[in-house]
Each structure stands twice: as structure tokens, then as C-alpha cells.
């Protein structure tokens, strides 16, 4: 008898296991659609947040698609053009007892989640977390002079009124077998893509989609982040690679493409590491994602490095987003 396969193993095509789960998928889809209708009705009577725009960055599928780098890039784009963005997020994995919470670069990922800490470090914007994104947004606006909200992973949080929706799609896995949970990887039916403002592909786009690449060329020491090494300095060397993200092979493939001989160690998304999981005592460098590094910085030795990645969308996307935000601004001023 072979090893038990995880459910996501069956999400690439419409195999017997996926088809057997299809009735549950229909039930899940019905609940999702009813939830959307309920919140749309409630939102008619709710005052909109007092900002120039609310932009949601999310995805349709379970697993990583590059949302966090996109949020960081979007915040930089908005700041460069005179806006004052703030970020709200659910704080997935955070064990805090009281919400909302301000996230700083020094925050404990165990309390507020790993991705919010990473966004606080990279974006330079105020970041608030709360399972209730509206409450997070109100706390953010009460404490900071922000005029635009960027919601991380809020596509399915329909209680949050939004002006623009950006959906991230992994270029390799795309929408899998096209079925909703648990028969497939989708959180909402595929037709949802027709309703959003921008579909951004982490890879090669199709017509109507925008392209984005993730690039990482440097490694930084966890113990001394000011110590920087070019990845090409490790060309041809064996390295341990740790990734507790939505799609670990993406990180391993990036290192392999840079010429490294990778010993992969894949962990579940948002994995809480222990010392034994990141130490190998063989003298080889240990490389990890920046998202993992925020959880491992207090356990790291001199052999531990992280590789920050940046989103590089095609230039047309920046222009289109800025035009859309400017249009929103004019519309809100007329109301």
C-alpha cells in the first residue's frame, strides 16, 4: 500500500476522486454564492470607508499565487504617485486573542501571521490585521492618515466593500480542474474571473490577462540582514532550500534556475518551524523564503539565508491601475 496522498493531489484533473467529491463541491458553491448575495444586500446600507479607494488583492484558488509580492508592489506604486496606502489582512495563522492588531516589522508572526509581518517589513505602510477586515480598516484609518486601502487576500471577504479587485493566478497550475472545494482548488466558481477588474498571471498570460514575474537575485543573512550575497555566488553548490508557502516548488525552481543544486524541504503554508526543522549540521547553506525567515530569525545560525522576491508586472498594469484609481477618485468626489 502506497503513501496516503493529500487532497490537493487530485485537483489537477477530473479524476474519480474529484468526481466523487463533486456533490460536496456543489454544496460549497451554493453556500459561497448565498454568502455573496447576503453581503451585497447588507452593503447597500453600509457607509463606504472614507478613502479614495479600496483595492482587494486575492485569488480564486487555494495555495500561493504571489499575492504578497503584489501587495508590496502595489503599495510602492501608489506611494510613488502621491497616495497614502494602508494594508489590511486577516492575519491567517495568528493566535492573538484581541483584534484588530497593528503589525510592525518587529511583530511576532505567531500572534499576527507571517505574511502581515512580511508586508510590514517590505511595504513601509501601516498594516492592520483582523478576521473582520472592516474592523481592521477602521482601526487603520483611526490611527493613520491613509487615503487608500489595500486588502490582502480579501476576495472572498464580501463584507468588505471594494472598488477594485485584482486576482492573482499561478501560471503553472492556473485553475486546476476548474472545480470548487473540496473537489478542486477553487474558492469560488471560475466565472468569478469575468467580474474582477484585473487578472494577473504569475507566468505567461492569456488574452485579457496581465503578466507578472517574481524575481529574486540576492540572499540575505537571517542573523545579519545587512550581509548580502548574490545567488550567483552559490552557482553549482548544494544548498538546503526551505519553503512553507502555498506552492513550494516555485521557490525551488527559482533556485535551480539560478544554478544551485537544491535539496528541497517543503512544508505546509504558514508552517510554524522548530529548530530541528531548519538545522542540518552538514555545513551546507540553508536558503528559505522571506515569508519563512520572519518566523525563523530567532533560531537562525550563520548558515541561514533568505531570498526576498519582488513582483515585476508588465508596465501596462501599473498604468491601468493608476487610471482606474484616478477614475474612482473622481467618482467618489461627485457623490
Automatic annotation (TrEMBL):
Reaction equation(s) it catalyzes: a lipid A disaccharide + ATP = a lipid IVA + ADP + H(+)
EC numbers for this chain: 2.7.1.130
Biological pathway: Glycolipid biosynthesis; lipid IV(A) biosynthesis; lipid IV(A) from (3R)-3-hydroxytetradecanoyl-[acyl-carrier-protein] and UDP-N-acetyl-alpha-D-glucosamine: step 6/6
UniProt KW keywords: ATP-binding, Kinase, Lipid A biosynthesis, Lipid biosynthesis, Lipid metabolism, Membrane, Nucleotide-binding, Transferase, Transmembrane, Transmembrane helix
Pfam families to which the protein is assigned, alphabetical: LpxK
Transmembrane segments: 20-37
GO cellular component terms attached to this protein's record: plasma membrane
Family annotation (InterPro entries): LpxK (IPR003758), P-loop_NTPase (IPR027417)
Residue sites binding ATP per the record: 61-68
Protein's GO biological process: lipid A biosynthetic process; lipopolysaccharide core region biosynthetic process
GO MF, any single term: ATP binding
Stated role: Transfers the gamma-phosphate of ATP to the 4'-position of a tetraacyldisaccharide 1-phosphate intermediate (termed DS-1-P) to form tetraacyldisaccharide 1,4'-bis-phosphate (lipid IVA).
Family label: Belongs to the LpxK family.
NCBIfam families, per the entry: lpxK (TIGR00682)
Protein's name in the database: Tetraacyldisaccharide 4'-kinase
Organism: Ectothiorhodospira magna
